[in-house]
Design brief:
- The protein is an alpha+beta fold and about 450 residues long.
- Helices cover about 30% and strands about 25% of the residues.
- The protein is built from twelve helices and 16 strands.
- It has an eight-stranded mixed beta sheet with strand order 6-10-11-16-15-14-13-12. A five-stranded antiparallel beta sheet has the order 3-2-1-4-5. A three-stranded antiparallel beta sheet has the order 7-9-8, with no helix packed on it.
- The two termini are about 25 Å apart.
- The mean pLDDT is about 95.
- The structure holds aspartyl-adenosine-5'-monophosphate.
- Aspartyl-adenosine-5'-monophosphate (AMO) binds near residues 197, 230, 364 and 408.
- The site of aspartyl-adenosine-5'-monophosphate (AMO) has 22 residues, from strand 11, strand 15, strand 16 and helix 12.
């Protein structure tokens, strides 16, 4: 028996109901989290987006009609309650709502596929299948409220620093991050791809706006199934004209410190629910050269040939040596980096590239960019890429390309690191990997 909302509108969120409002009437909406029937009295815990309020029913004081309706209610029903606020030192937060009238607005089937109170623990796989119920668990909700805070802090920090927010295309004609990991799509009579990053668009845009950023979804057709890779992820991208890698690394570390301090200020309750003690890292973050990291790894028994990328087991080892630490790895061999990264003028085997790490996880990468057409063409050749595919970008070199630098930061990975979650899927609402396309 589902009712209409009619002219009922919320007067208070749960958090606004206090003992000071004793005797006042209120309309609240939400989901029934818990029901405790003690015989003469029944307690309902109603949850809305701000918290919980206790609805207390003294059966002998309630009309038969209301009692009948109350008897239909089960956990996770969406309901509205019109009632009188009552101060009661024994109730949670010293206040409860005594119902006069209720509306059942949405029913829930039982048994539920997942216990949204989290009292019956479930594996991540099961949780992701019933994700919307899982998101009602206090821990899941806390993760996404913190994620919202971080995104908000990043955006306002960058805007305050004079960066312009842009939106680049998701449907593109050529790879910017290496051909292997592209999703192909049919685009009318031709073939197109889902963008892996905004790289070559943000680089063009600095010739107009000088300082740009984008927060958006990007796609990688990687088949690897790991705890830190998804096929769809959110990247925070930044690009700036007339600066070098060191300048944008500074922006990045300051932005992270700002976001962490905002979370500490605004989301104490959520951090407590997650049992996370966030520390504000000191800046500047440490900078290690690729060579220094190789030496450190060798000492720890992990030999990497110079010129190779760092393997996952080696990263794992690094994580143990850099506990609780954000750090940069700089001066990467050019051949390990994409074609748009600038080789050093005096030593082209090395590049102006950096990665930001947290323990063993790469959070971001970036660098100074190739700003000369001849060098760009050479880099394409080195990486066996066809210059015709990049004509749209090569043209920009003929319109006044300044020196520039930038980075891309995986938002999901940053949240994972800050909240010490083991699996990236925990911090993404509806993660996409090879095996997860639904929900
Ligand atoms: P890169 O390919 O290193 O660089 O990506 C930047 C950051 O994005 C995140 N990331 C991912 N997160 C989850 N799942 C994935 N499959 C995934 N792939 C990448 C990581 C990574 O550090 N254009 C450059 C950036 C730049 O130079 O501006 C780029 O895309 O946190």
């Amino acid at each position: 028996m589902i009712e209409e909302l009619g002219d009922w509108r919320r007067t208070h969120y749960s958090k606004d109901i206090s003992s000071k409002l004793d005797g006042k009437e209120a309309i609240v909406f939400g989901w029934i989290e818990d029901i405790r029937d003690l015989g003469k009295i029944t307690f309902y815990t109603l949850r809305d987006k701000e918290g919980v309020i206790q609805i207390t029913v003294h059966k002998k004081n309630v009309s038969k009609k209301l009692l009948e309706k109350l008897s239909l209610i089960k956990r996770q029903y969406a309901i509205g309650v019109k009632g009188i606020i009552k101060a009661n030192p024994e109730a949670p937060k010293g206040v409860e709502l005594i119902p006069l009238e209720i509306k059942i607005l949405g029913e829930a089937i039982h048994p539920l596929p997942l216990d949204p109170t989290g009292r019956t623990p479930a594996e991540l796989d099961t949780r992701l299948k019933a994700r919307i119920l899982d998101l009602r668990r206090p821990e899941s909700r806390a993760i996404f409220l913190i994620r919202h805070e971080v995104t908000n802090a990043i955006r306002s920090f960058l805007i305050k620093k004079g960066y312009i927010e842009v939106h680049t295309p998701r449907i593109i004609s050529a790879a910017a991050e290496g051909g292997a990991a592209l999703f192909k799509i049919n685009y009318f009579d031709s073939q197109a791809y889902l963008a892996q990053s905004p790289e070559l668009y943000k680089e063009q845009l600095i010739t107009v706006f000088e300082k740009v950023f984008e927060i958006g979804t990007f796609f990688r057709a990687e088949e690897t199934h790991t705890r830190r890779h998804l096929n769809e992820f959110i990247s925070v991208d930044l690009e700036e004209a007339f600066v070098t890698m060191n300048d944008v690394m500074k922006v990045q570390e300051e932005m992270i410190v700002y976001a962490i301090s905002k979370v500490k200020e605004e989301r104490k309750e959520e951090l407590e629910i997650l049992g996370v003690n966030l520390e504000i890292p000191k800046i500047p973050f440490k900078r290690y050269t690729y060579d220094e990291i190789l030496k450190e790894l060798e000492k720890a028994g992990e030999k990497i040939e110079w010129g190779n990328d760092i393997s996952t087991p080696a990263y794992r080892k690094l994580g143990k040596l850099h506990l609780n630490e954000f750090y940069f790895i700089i001066d990467w061999p050019s051949k390990t980096r994409p074609f748009y990264i600038k080789p050093k003028e005096d030593n082209p085997g090395l590049s102006y590239a950096f990665d930001l790490m947290y323990e063993w996880i790469e959070i971001a990468s970036g660098g100074s960019r190739v700003d000369k057409k001849t060098v760009f063409l050479e880099r394409l050749k080195e990486q066996n890429l066809n210059p015709n595919s990049f004509k749209f970008y090569l043209d920009v070199f003929d319109y006044g390309m300044p020196p520039h630098a930038g980075w891309g930061l995986g938002l999901d990975r940053l949240i994972m690191a800050l909240l010490k979650r083991e699996n990236i899927r925990e911090v993404v609402l509806f993660p996409r990997d090879r095996f997860l396309l639904v929900p």
